[in-house]
């Protein structure tokens, strides 16, 4: 549930981004995000229906999906643009993503080189959400020092997974593919994530990126309200 203040910020910031988000600009935005994946199978109730006259007629092993209390997991960072994708970055076990580790593991190790390789000497823009590691002053200053244009913490609409292509078009696909069954260990999970990430057609990413302006307009039309994922 969005508060009145959050809706107002989403409305105003979406308007501002819309004014600079023509297709030629959207083509040069690198959208990014992190997501936690576990070795546990993800259950979809819509796909797991069993027709039976009574519960007793259903074999016991099919009545319940076993769940581990704290399944092993890995944090993944990735990014897409209209014409390319980043390498996947797997955050080492036990490492907390704060401003320092975010800059070292992701910005220095991947983002800087990606920009040079994929955008050359032309200007481009980096997008990230409002996570604390992203909005920290040291992180924001990193972009200024590197002379990389970015959507600052004062510009990105808060509580807006519906505006990030990684959220509304990428993570769900990977989760469906990777977590359709459980994994024996983290190594298996990582290998599957990497494989499925590379299988997604670039055209899918391009279409997702091109939806950005349309979604900004939809948020404006809804006066800052959520739009469907």
Automatic annotation (TrEMBL):
Residues 63-189 form the Tc1-like transposase DDE domain. InterPro entries: RNaseH_sf, Tc1-like_DDE_dom. GO terms for molecular function: nucleic acid binding. This is Tc1-like transposase DDE domain-containing protein.
